[in-house]
Structure formats: C-alpha cells, structure tokens
Specification:
Order of helices and strands: EHEHEHEHEHEEHEHHHHHH
Largest sheet: 8 strands, mixed
Number of domains: 2
Number of strands: 8
Shape: globular
CATH class of the largest domain: Alpha Beta
Number of helices: 12
Length: 283
C-alpha cells in the first residue's frame, strides 16, 4: 500500500515508522509545509519521498492527515475531491471531531473518509520526536463510522490494528465532550501551573531548585506546541469551557476547605480523587 502522510510531527512520523516496519505500507510519501521537517524525515528514513499534497494524494491508496485541526479543516475538501475519484481512503488524527466531520459531511465523497483520534502522544513535536511503539496498547476513537464505506473503514481499522491500537467507536459530539475532560483540560492545567511557577520564579529564584518528580510530571504537557493546542481550544471551546468551569469549581472547593483548615473535607476530596486510578486500570 502506498500511503501519504500530511504532517510529519510526532503523530505522523511515528505512524510512518511503524506502518513501514510492520509491513502495512510499501511506500510512504511525506507532506509538510516545513522544509526542515521534510528534510529531517527523509534523512531519518521515516518517509521514502516528498511531494505536494495534491501529488501525494493522487498517488496514494491511503491519505493520513496528521495535522493541527485548523489545517485539517482547510485542506479536507480538496483531499476528498482527489481521493473520491479513485476509491482512495482518507483519515485524520485530529483531537476534535465535530468541526472536521461537519466539513466531511458536506462533501459528496464523504464515504471515503474515516474520522479518527488516536489517543497517544507526548509533549514533543517534529520528526525528531517520532518513535516506534508510540501507539502500542493505546486506544483510537473512530467517529461516525456509519458514514464511512465498508472499504474505507476496513482499511483504517487494519491500519490501527497494525499499530497495536484498541479501536473504539463514538459519535463526534460525545467524543469532543469526553476529549475535553481527559485531554484538553489536562493541557490547560499544565499550561496554567507552568505560568504560575514562572511568575513566582521571577521573585524567588530558588523555587525551581525545589521542584521534584511530581512537579515535572504535572507540567510535562506545558511543553506542548501552541500550533497544535490553540486550534483545539478554539474548535472545542464549548466543551472545554464547560469542563474548565467544573475544574475551577473543584479548585475553589479545595481553597475553601484549606482556608478554614477543614481537614476532614480535604481528606474526603483526596480519597475521592484517589479512585481515578481504579477507573483507569479497569479500562
């Protein structure tokens, strides 16, 4: 199978590595607006060749849009127009699905598109961040699958099976609401804590010398790229704002209990919070 991957960052690059190593792809053509990404991906052997999006789409059996969601929205109609002519399959890796599927739904070649969100990543970006095994034993959400042709859905499922991912199905709107809780708010919390500590560091130079593993793991996501996350917050603003209000309310609750030294209430909240690992481990 010949594959076009548009976007050679962590997600697209890691896909390219394992799809080639594991025999799913015979040839991978890379597309990226950043010439350095193209050069680095080619020299590292992540891709076989480079081309324009139009050229690569016309020559590939599967087109993967591993780009920020605003970029996916912009190019998806043109890619669907090219792909629909010869039965090619198009899929994306965007973290929000409602805005993308709305555009796909309005296109006559909607059935060749499969909306996907692989739930994997790190705080790093670019081809140098790509590595084998990123997707192993993670979940991928495929949305509105009834609108995709059996052929397109079969190809994308097989691709994610090759990446050792667990395939789940959801509607776009519930997906976006859930993603806001389990992914988007986590990043906002990390960004906010990073800003707080950097502000404190201006006045107390030793504050970061006290930072341990807990701090590092909490602010790890603050290194994530603005080019990825600003469009996500914009496109998924309603669920993000709703979830952010709920998060702020929990912070206010902790503040209130701490301000009056209500140890019993603080203990109760921590014990309730502890239960999250049981939920995660049961999945």
């Amino acid at each position: 199978m010949n594959i076009c991957i548009a976007g050679l960052g962590l997600i697209g690059g890691s896909m390219a590595i394992d799809l080639k190593r594991r025999g799913f792809a015979d040839r991978i053509t890379g597309v990226d607006n950043n010439p350095c990404h193209l050069r680095d991906a080619k020299s590292a052997g992540i891709i076989d060749e480079t081309a324009s999006l139009e050229e690569a789409s016309g020559l590939s059996d599967l087109i993967i849009l591993a780009l920020p969601v605003d970029s996916i929205k912009r190019i998806l109609p043109d890619v669907l127009s090219i792909a629909g002519k010869n039965g090619r399959v198009v899929t994306d890796t965007g973290s929000t699905k409602g805005c993308i599927t709305a555009i796909a739904d309005a296109h006559p070649n909607r059935d060749c598109f499969v909306a996907g969100h692989p739930m994997a990543g790190t705080e790093y970006s670019g081809p140098s961040a790509a590595f084998s095994g990123l997707f192993d034993n993670k979940s991928v959400i495929l949305c509105d699958t009834e609108k995709s042709s059996p052929h397109a859905l079969g190809v994308v499922k097989e691709m994610y099976k090759t990446l050792n991912m667990k395939v789940l199905k959801m509607k776009s709107v519930p997906h976006d609401i859930s993603a806001a809780y389990v992914s988007h708010i986590s990043h906002i919390a990390s960004f906010a804590l990073s800003l707080c500590v950097q502000e404190k560091e201006k006045n107390e130079k030793r504050v970061l010398s006290l930072a341990g593993g807990g701090f590092s793991s909490t602010v790890r996501l603050a290194a994530s790229a603005a080019s990825t996350w600003t469009p996500i917050f914009e496109e998924n603003s309603s669920p993000v704002l709703e979830d952010l209000d709920a998060y702020i309310e929990q912070l206010r609750s902790f503040r209130e209990h701490i301000s009056v030294s209500n140890k019993e209430a603080i203990n109760d909240k921590i014990h309730q919070a502890n239960k999250i690992m049981n939920i995660i481990n049961s999945q």
